[in-house]
Give the backbone structure.
Amino acid sequence: MSRIGKQPVTIPSGVTVTLGQDRRLAVKGPKGNLELTLRPEVGVEIDEKEARVVLEDGADSREGRAFHGMTRALVNNMVLGVTTPFTKKLEIVGVGWNAAVQGKQIVLNIGFCHPVNIPLPASVTAEAPNPTTLILSGPDKQELGQVAATIRKVRPPEPYKGKGIHYSGEYVRRKAGKSFGA
């Protein structure tokens, strides 16, 4: 059994967790609804106050134990996400580079000859408190991370001047430039 998988997931008030016949776990809360299809190695036992992820019979292999812990972490992230949404903060470094939110898409002006438009999924919201900062939020941690990675991939930080899009708090390794000889 996985050490992480052994821990129960506490269900706060206002959140409902249901398991369908087709092994789909649904979590509904005040900030959104999420679904997860369970692997055949694991199951979920749901009480009023907590949910326990359990190994199915014959799934006590190394792979089964790994899925046990992973599924518990996914269920916990779903419960946390529907109560308080996850957030990711991106910073844009570069002279004249900026970002703006227009409806359900982000418009990036980051040194290309054209603006870059990135559509947002329905569950992810974005705001730009200033032109060089983007704050993304949403209940699904995986989808939020994927959207943030897609935005960062458009112009990742470069090591010489540090220009580009990076996560807030991310360390950008810097390199020395060319040294001129005599």
